[in-house]
Amino acid sequence: MRFVVAGASGFLGGAWTQALVEHGHEVVRLVRREPTAADEVRWDPASGTVDRAVVERADVVANLAGAPLVHVPWNERYRRTFTASRVDTTRTLAQAIAGSDRMPAFLAQSGVAAYGDRGSTVITEDSPVDARTFMGDVVRRWEAATEPAREAGARVALMRTSVVLDRRGGALPAMLLPFRLGLGGRIGNGEQFFATISLHDWLTAATFLAHNELSGPFNLTGPEPSTNAEFTEALGKALGRPTVLRVPSLPLRATALVGPIGGEILASQRLEPKRLLEAGYAFAHNDITDRLAAALR
Q: Which pTM does this prediction carry?
């Protein structure tokens, strides 16, 4: 298959494009600088510009682009940058797909923040995305930006991604140092559900969505959700370190590293991948112990 991928230089994009190429697929990487490799094509999402011929030849177009969550300073300017890096990129690709003749499938990265804090209530793709928070608004605008492609008749799959666990990227490396020093601990009371997925399962689930005629939202998260306390205990055991400390929630709410979403990190989300399971996708790493073992290899 021919893939066009935006955000291929990031943690997920880099791992996925490598996996696709290793499995014999052709991948074109969209870049915002001058291309330096034969598989790169320049685009400018800020101005809504992308080579329509590249989109026309694709079987699947995927957007994994987005400014990083951790940033200093998290000011109003960065809020705009953070949002535009997701919304403008998605809209540019959706409009290009809508204007194409072949109408490739569109796999659009999204998040789970719009579900909001739901305590112990099970969250599936049928749950409302009505969280009145900064990230909730970003996710709704992010997904709405795919509408030109969907309205034109293209197949659009929304990949609502939870925390992807791998020692080489994403959120886990920042957690490893304090845990290895014996300073890891649950956040607050630890009862909040913390949704995660292994990198292997994210990569194979994304490829599964590319290969199958599936559309609409999909929770890319492991099938057996764990609480923060369970995650903390499992990571401590995997590293052979104690986890007796507790991290107060108040400093996290106010930290400058994640600006307006410090409080959202503490949200409890008991996510389940209902639609992936119904479609026949088989997870390799079902519980938090398996996911962390795979992440630390």
A: 0.95
